[in-house]
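Ligand: pyridoxal-5'-phosphate. Inputs:
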Amino acid sequence: MSISNTSLLQRSLASVWHPCTQMKQHEMLPLVPIKRGEGVWLEDFDGKRYLDGVSSWWVNLFGHNHPHIKQAITAQLDQLEHVILAGFTHEPVVRLSEQLSILTGLGHSFYASDGASATEIALKMSFHYWRNRGPAGKTRFLSLQNGYHGETLGSLSVTDVALFKDTYAPLLRESVTLPSPDWRLAEAGESAEQYALRCAGFAEEYIAQHHDELAAVILEPLVQCATGMAMYHPAYLQQLRDICDRYQVHLVADEIAVGFGRTGTMFATEQAGIRPDFICLSKGITGGYLPLSVVQTTDEIYAAFYDDKVTRGFLHSHSYTGNALACSAALATLEIFAQHDVLNSNRSKTKYLNHQLAALADLPVAHLRNLGMIWAFDVAPSQPGFQQHFYQAALQRGLLLRPVGNTVYFMPPYVISEAEMDWMLEQTLHALKETI
Ligand SMILES: *Cc1c(COP(=O)(O)O)cnc(C)c1O
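Predicted complex:
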């Protein structure tokens, strides 16, 4: 390793507190310093390349160093980098809001910079809507077992990941979780759809009894990504939409990970033919270039805040709300979708990799699953230390994957080629054989 690599690692450990990390583990496991990126590849200071099989934590859609997005941000830099959005407006934020409305059918967009802020905003808005409009007393939220909505205190309250949550339990609002419709939890002989409907039945039972206190149900449509790419049948979403309508409870779709084509449609809720009351978007929205999140809601909900009384308004803000550079990256991302039939070309990539995955047949893996540009399988039986060992074995081979427990998943940038998919699979097979 070159001097520059080594010294950067030491300086990083001495000064940066890295996310989601027990820092002491870096005594054994070195950080990976990255100098540049190009397409699906990341490159360190010695020229070693890594295929970014997790899209840099699910944010990158069209590869690193994308000329069109880069050009759009640069052009925006010459005009306006940022301006306060309270009392002021600018063209990129207006154009983005208009275009997102056309895509989701939700008329108003409220901006923040990361996903957790978006889910917090949706929860606060839902609560405040009922406070403004009645009935009174709707102050609680329902979420799903194994759901993930971010890690600030409000979003962590509706997240169900013990490792992230238990330590902070005394700081959190108590919340109720519904059984996950994850088809792996179905009983023998029960189809994914039958199980989804059974879970919707549990939801209905609870909501029928408690709707007086419930403001909203928040869920990740179709794929619970953070807890290991748990997938479920769209019938669940159709049922939940119907139940929420009947009992006057909002439905919040957290599409932070699955939005922007990840599941094969622009938004996952489209596959159920439903429109949520709130949608939370972030991650891929800027193609992975700049932090931006948005909560969109209906004009009817927006109208409940529109009043002579200041306190009936939504008095929430973040300093970088509607940042012009981030909005320009998002607009460029939407242009790529519009100009290049992305969803269709992803479909043939999906088909290709699904076919190649037959190569896993001889290995002890279960629950091979795919939706759009997400693939996952579980190593069975689960082995202690698998996550860490596999991560290192793959990294050694130049492949960046981050298993969740015993689940290995691929979530590559959409620009991955067939040859790169083959290479990714080949390295995965080697890493599995070295690990299992
Ligand atoms: C990543 C994620 C979040 C949180 O987004 P951050 O930008 O990391 O705060 C919330 N919900 C879902 C479904 C996510 O995948």
